[in-house]
Amino acid sequence: MHNYHSEIDNIKIKNIYYMLAYACELFNDELNNAIAVESEDFDNIHEFFAKILIKQVKKQIKHGLHRDYIPIQEDLSGVRGRININETIKQQTLIKGRLVCAFDEFSANTHFNQTLKCVLLLFIRHATLNEKIKQEIRGLLRYFAEVSEIEPPNIRWDSFNYHRNNVSYRMLIYVCKLVVKSLLVTKENGTHSLKMFNEPEEMQRSEIYKRFVLGYYKYHYPELTLSHENRIIAWDIMADNEIPLMPTMATDIILSNGAQHLIIETKFYYAKHEHNNNETEHIILRPNHTGSPKYNWGNLYQMYAYLANYAKMHNLDSEQVSGLLLYAKTNDDEAKLLENTKLTIAGSSLELAVLDLSQDWNIIEKKLEEVVLILKCS
Q: Is residue 238 scored above 80 in pLDDT?
């Protein structure tokens, strides 16, 4: 069996946070400033998010929980607000000497606080946390006694409007949204749980890696044209009729400044697969018939097809189109062999680069900046 934890264990918790934030398109400078000062002393991603939320909720409690006028309707022995005649008759409350009244109450039972309570309870009930952190959360929940419990699917993310009196909730809601969107699992019976980042099948790490790179460039380079939905590349073939069996060419990301076009394929491979004879097969570098490591020819054929057909499709010179195979680091030896590999293929520039997710975040950012230099300089 392959040890799935081996790759993930080497990724810093803070880096996993950044990857998830960009992948969910929830990254912002405010969150970045808050997270940047956190230490790396966490056992897992649940602890990381829980500690961030605890710290921010404590700060909010000191300033006071958000309150607003909440519409309430209930039967009372006296009059408060407006009497709802229809409901009074329908519920026959006059028999008991009561009236159904509708009124506004200045309360902390707002959707902002309901969302916070929902996510805090998720951590208590479903997260992998040590007892000390859970105790901290239980202490905070005492301040939410008058706040109703809601289920995660009932959080209305698009209903939050910020103004001078509640702007301090912006980051809190972003953290809550990131937890729910990236870690929440809804089971068949309707219950919920929080998954770990090292659950490979559920988290689909290669998909998160792709969306992370996409989200990074989308956030930091709004001036570039970024294609990730309409990224189909047509085959440059001549045929009398359509050929339905031709495979679709859909690359991960295409960045363009108008003059230059960069096709990016992200690859998150496991370091090796175990075979019955205990031999190993590297994925980024494949052994040839003599056992010598060679570039993954499947990836090279893929990029060759993308570069050649994309240039034809858009009537571009081959020099205007470049490619990038961006691997997540899995193995030190492979990373060294791939370092600074630049080729010319089908007349276009192709770079093979490795992103080491175990490094400090500023080094990862620097690498992501380097690969788009061709677009910034032209």
A: no
Residue 144 tokens, joined: 């939410």
Residues 338/327, Cβ–Cβ less than 8 Å? yes
pLDDT in tens, 92-148: 888 888 989 988 888 999 999 999 999 999 999 877 788 999 999 999 999 999 999
Q: What 3-state class would DSSP assign to 105?
A: strand
324 touches 351 (CB < 8 A): yes
DSSP reduced 3-state for 258: coil
3-state helix, strand, coil in the chain (%, to 5): 45, 20, 35
Question: What are the start-end ranges of the H helices in the chain?
Answer: 5-9, 13-23, 29-36, 45-63, 85-91, 111-126, 131-141, 169-183, 200-203, 205-220, 297-313, 332-338, 361-370, 373-377
Of 72, 71, 49, 59, residue with least CA distance to 143: 59
What's the whole-model pTM score?
A: 0.70
Residue 206 phi, psi (nearest 5):
-65, -35
Q: Residue 290 has which token pair? A: 């003599």
Beta strands 261-267; 253-256: pairing state? antiparallel
Token reading at 314: 């858009």
Q: Using CA atoms, how far apart are residues 213 and 6, in angstroms rounded to an integer? A: 22
The token pair that represents 353 in the structure block: 């680069």
Go through the domains of the chain in sequence order and give each one's CATH number: 5-66+111-199 (no CATH), 68-107 (no CATH), 204-377 (3.40.1350.10)
Question: Which residues are CB-neighbours of 144 under 8 A, at least 6 positions away?
Answer: 65, 108, 113, 116, 117, 120
**Cβ-proximal residues to 310 (8 Å cutoff; 6+ apart), any chain:** 233, 254, 261, 263, 316, 321
Q: State how far the Cα of 72 lies from the Cα of 88, in Å rounded to an integer.
A: 15
Inter-residue contact 211 to 22 (CB < 8 Å):
yes
Q: What residues pair up with 103 in beta bridges, in sequence order?
A: 72
